Amino acid sequence: MTVHQNLIAGEWTGANGVENINPSDTNEVVGLYAQASVDDTKAAIAAAKAAFPAWSRSGIWERHVILKKAGDEIMARKDELGALLAREEGKTLPEAIGETIRASQIFEFFAGEALRLAGEVVPSVRPNIGVEITREGLGVIGIITPWNFPIAIPAWKIAPALCYGNTVVFKPAELVPACSWAIVDILHRAGLPKGVLNLVMGKGSVVGQTILDSPDVAGITFTGSTGTGKRVAAASVEHNRKFQLEMGGKNPMVVLDDADLTVAVEAAANSGFFSTGQRCTASSRLIVTEGIHDKFVAALTEKLKTLVVDNALKAGTHIGPVVDERQLKTDIDYIEIGKTEGAKLAFGGEVISRDTPGFYLQPTLFTEATNQMRISREEIFGPVVSVIRVKDYDEALATANDTPFGLSSGIATTSLKHATHFKRNSEAGMVMVNLPTAGVDFHVPFGGRKGSSYGPREQGKYAAEFYTTVKTAYTLA
Ligand code: NDP
């Protein structure tokens, strides 16, 4: 098997390939991927630093063409790249193709943004002086990504970084190097100058830590766990650099007595269990008012019986495997914790086998949970959801907001009054009405509050807040 190498200073390099294993079929090796060392990572940072002056002054048409070409190629190869994604991460083929399309759309969006770069010219408070306000790229951006969106998250960080004139050192999660390698290959062939985009695959403790420790990295954009996010923050403060963190969630979905039952069940099943519950925007707390509680639990349980857990590539699969053995153990541990805490296991909870050996877990639903239980407070990141019964809307809102996290939230209701109040008073960065808590557009801001996020929002026009620094220039006329 050929080894997929790292890209450093425009050269593919690295020999020792580590196996990327398919979680739907652990006998299958998706590919071999090189591991960067500390020295490789330092070389990548040096290359990005050397490439920055020219790239930051490159024409916007050049940036547009490269980003557009990348978006077009990703779209043209959506089925192949989607299958690669499904094989390395385990989300179902339709979900994986959907994520690939989204990556393409993100490149198209920032190809457009490159042509819309602009500043402001304003009069000075003093006579005969003009003031120009412009945005400039930061320098070398360290991009560190998690395993759960192997193509969309790299796309929504790399595309704006390049659009605004930054150079990049990119470290994908060790579990999912294949999609990252593919998009770096596409961008490289699209004509990026040497050193503008560098790929360093390998361990967080080696490659990631070297990026954190480098004084030459001007900004770090990170998505992943709260623990690693705190390390990024501490190291960035040390180096006086800009940083942006997207971390975990414990997203609530409120279901009110007046909800359309079908809408509520569809939204809850999607939020909690699709993509195997491995979305930072997944809803793992269903907060249900008592008038609809029993009907809702019965209907959701019926729905769960119809969901097929199987190989991600198989037609008809609704839920693919858990990403790896370690995450499966975490999920199982939380199921045990839920039982011990006194929640009632209403559905699922069992590891299951299929034709191909993989990490298959039934969608798992707890009822009679309280918001104080660990299963309601800590992020599980698996297909494990608990239902919390509440008296009325006021208690539902208070319970929804009673969490250290604040990424997304949802409400199922037919009441305009409650929907409006919830949108205004939910302490989350993204609020959904009669929709799943997961599933967001690519052209509008993404991000959360409280323990979920730090720094400017990602995606859409708001991405410029992180990837640029503002300059105010004064000229005597
Ligand atoms: P991790 O924090 O373990 O890993 C995220 C990235 O950080 C990986 O690339 C990892 O490398 C790297 N890393 C690990 N240690 C270090 C280090 N010391 N220095 C620098 N980088 C390091 O998270 P997971 O990949 O396990 O992702 C799951 C978590 O991410 C969940 O908690 C989830 O909620 C959160 N998440 C949040 C999202 C959001 O937008 N809010 C979106 C997606 C996920 P490696 O894996 O190779 O060791």
Task: Describe the structure concisely.
Belongs to the aldehyde dehydrogenase family. By secondary structure, the chain is of the alpha/beta class.
Describe this protein with a few key phrases.
alpha/beta; 2 domains; 477 residues; 15 helices; Aldehyde Dehydrogenase, Chain A, domain 1; 6-stranded mixed sheet; 7-stranded mixed sheet; binds NADPH dihydro-nicotinamide-adenine-dinucleotide phosphate; globular; Aldehyde Dehydrogenase, Chain A, domain 2; 40% helix
Topology:
Elements lengths: L2 E2 L1 E3 L2 E3 L3 E6 L2 E10 L3 H19 L3 H17 L1 H12 L3 H23 L4 E4 L5 E9 L2 E5 L7 H12 L3 E5 L5 H13 L7 E3 L4 H10 L5 E5 L2 H13 L3 E5 L4 E5 L5 H13 L9 E7 H17 L18 H17 L2 E4 L3 E2 L7 E2 L2 E6 L4 H4 L6 E7 L2 H9 L6 E5 L3 H10 L4 E4 L19 E2 L9 H4 E9 L1
Parallel strand pairs: 1-5, 8-9, 8-11, 9-10, 11-12, 13-14, 13-20, 14-19, 18-19, 20-21
Antiparallel strand pairs: 2-3, 4-5, 6-7, 7-23, 12-22, 15-18, 16-17
Helix pairs in contact: 1-7, 2-4, 3-4, 3-6, 4-5, 9-10
The structure holds NADPH dihydro-nicotinamide-adenine-dinucleotide phosphate.
Structure overview:
- Belongs to the aldehyde dehydrogenase family.
- This is Aldehyde dehydrogenase family protein.
- Keywords: Oxidoreductase.
- This protein is α/β, with parallel strands linked by helices and 477 residues long.
- It has 2 domains: 3-247 and 452-476, Aldehyde Dehydrogenase, Chain A, domain 1 (3-Layer(aba) Sandwich), CATH 3.40.605.10; 251-433, 3-Layer(aba) Sandwich (Aldehyde Dehydrogenase, Chain A, domain 2), CATH 3.40.309.
- Helix content is 40%, strand content 24%.
- The chain contains 15 helices and 23 strands.
- The strands form 6 sheets. Strands 15-18-19-14-13-20-21 form a 7-stranded mixed beta sheet, with helices on both faces. Strands 10-9-8-11-12-22 form a 6-stranded mixed beta sheet, with helices on both faces. Strands 1-5-4 form a 3-stranded mixed beta sheet, covered by helices on one side.
- It binds NADPH dihydro-nicotinamide-adenine-dinucleotide phosphate (NDP).
